[in-house]
Amino acid sequence: MPLVRTGEIVAEAAAARRGCGAFNAIQLEHLTAITEGAALAGAPVIVQLSQNAVRYHGALAPIGGAALATARVAEARVAVHLDHAESRDLVREAVGLGFGSVMFDASKLDYADNVRETREVVGFCHDHGVWVEAELGEVGGKDGVHAPGARTDPAEAAEFAAATGVDALAVAVGSSHAMLTRDAALDFGLIARLRSRVPVPLVLHGSSGVSDDGLAEAVRAGMTKVNIATQLNKVFTAAAAGDWRTHPERVDPRRYLGAGRDAVTAEVRRLLGVLGSSALRRT
Description:
Helix content is about 50%, strand content about 15%. An eight-stranded parallel beta barrel has the order 1-2-3-4-5-6-7-8, surrounded by ten helices. Helix 9 links the parallel strand 7 and strand 8. About 50% of the residues are buried. The radius of gyration is 18 Å and the shape is globular. About 5% of the residues have low confidence. Helix 7 runs parallel beside helix 8. The two termini are about 15 Å apart. The longest helix is centred in the last third of the chain and has 23 residues. The chain is an alpha/beta fold and about 280 residues long.
């Protein structure tokens, strides 16, 4: 299956009023689990590598190259995306490697600086055929610096999208990054108002803290791209740790890492069903 672009998957989902799953990977087991889960669901998928994941590996090229290679041999349609990049150099490197999209995060800056920095990144990326997501304001919980209860103003979001030329916008509607419980209370009315005012697809960050019903309702209200990271780490860790505790005599890491990978595969398949992504399958 050839590598596809994030923009293609997101546009299909937006037109169909379905959600598209964007799952963060940390190591190769994540990459193969996400793509296999999508194949089993009969759905397209977006594989994401965050700036933090790049820092963990010491450089983008090793894990980025693995992501692109995994996407190219997958049975599902897979796009590869750089998530939460605060460095322009990292954005340029991702574009050079062949990533089809980036999320440039200048949300810690004030509004005017965010617009200026984001607009410049958008110009560079669009010159190279790369789709750009950005964030207005800060989504709760990121690195502990986001104020609880942060919400995106629809008028400001529409102005930001027009001023920067972004292709998608991450908005604050009640979710928080790195939540270990799935009890975040989303503001579905705000999502609908944002959808009616913002001319580009909306992105939900912090989706691991949202229940299945909440995710499905968020898509119905107007969310399109749904980012999920912590939930996959939870199921991976539980399965890998459970296998090791059951068989402490095993020293081959493929045993417990494989258990974690299988758990992530199943969870990706399940979540794509929750988001309605299987309806985007091409025959």
